Amino acid sequence: MYLHKISVDQEALNKEQTIYRDAYSLHQKIWALVSRDKNQKRNFLYRVEYDAYQKIKHIYLLAPHQVSSQNDIKVAVSPRYQPQIETGECLYFKLRANPVIKRKENGKAKEYSIIMDAKHQFKKNGQNYQEQFSLDELIYDVGMKWLIRKGEQHGFSVKQFEVRIDNDREYYVKPLGKQAFTLRTLDFEGNLKIVDADQFKKALFKGIGSAKSFGCGMMMIKRI
Known about the structure:
By secondary structure, the protein is an alpha+beta fold. Helix content is 29%, strand content 36%.
């Protein structure tokens, strides 16, 4: 795998706002940049970094082959991505995820945002979440529970108050010829401890969470 840092010319960002501000169009743009086969399945992860005005600063891309600069897109690529990490090591991380939970409805499994699902469970039990939580507290509570579960699956652990959760955002996604849906993301940032280095490395390459499209699932790490 190779880690890329993609910069988009400012004029192109202004000229092609529909592409770079729409989650589906941007995903297609990245796919076209990486794809080498029309039948290729998604085998890459990416993360978009925004400035204070929600304009794209740059895009990090993890792909199995090197991607070259083209037109208004400049690409800086690292040597082969081979993170040297050990069990017991503590790292700083950033993760944008689309945290979902699967529940059966009318005999079929469906995915729901963990935030919306939490609100629904309170309502189902005849309660109002606002009696116990503010919205920010609810997001933190269910977000941490989700991240702890993912850590147990992927070889890392996190602690309360060592992780910040914010940027609760919704994106309206309308794929061509398919039903539109809403994508809800959370940003996780803080410290983690590696419990199983081999499992953690797999997660770095494959991503975190079951919903990894549209710039979700890629974990960025650095030493503390």
